[in-house]
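[Meeting: bench + compute handoff]

Bench side (C.D.) handed over the final construct sequence. Compute side (W.E.) agreed to return the predicted structure before the next meeting so the bench team could plan truncations. Sequence as handed over:
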Amino acid sequence: MKDIRQEIEAYIPCNEQEAQDKMTMLAWMDRGGDLYTRENRTAHFTASAWVADLNHAHVLLAYHNIYQSWSWLGGHADGDHDLLHVAMKEVSEESGLTEVRPLSEKIASIEILTVDGHQKHGAYVSSHLHMNVTYLMEADSSQPIRCKEDENSSVAWFGLEEAVEKSSEPWFREHIYPKLNQRLKEFTK
């Protein structure tokens, strides 16, 4: 099993946000406690994927019901300490893709994301933090896709810049998705 602490320690931040979030994630890990399940109602690990087509000209987004925004694919660790595995599982669950592969097993981005309180499955979920790691992946865009109705209402491929514009979440549009597009371009050089 991959050691996420070693992966985060080895990760080289690309900006101040990542440097600060890396230090905070490591500090949370030093405190101990369960960071891999939602039982920790303050902060827990999540994993996301920036899924590109085979030409790396388009990325796959889902329209998430809670956030009312086009967004990357991903989700909670739910006890799994292998966050690359979590990201791949979430891509499959949220999009129906059966064949997706990581472009690298290394983390492409880290971020601590705030989650406002919301209703899920008829129960209130308090505001909390997602300590998120993101991986670059690719899939054949000719594969069938489908939404996961309890989480998203649509799944579609978008051009790289169009994907950024589709998000209605300013933080993601300004700081996260452009960074992931840049990481994708760096990978394909």
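W.E. noted at the follow-up: The mean pLDDT is 93. C.D. will use this when planning the next construct.
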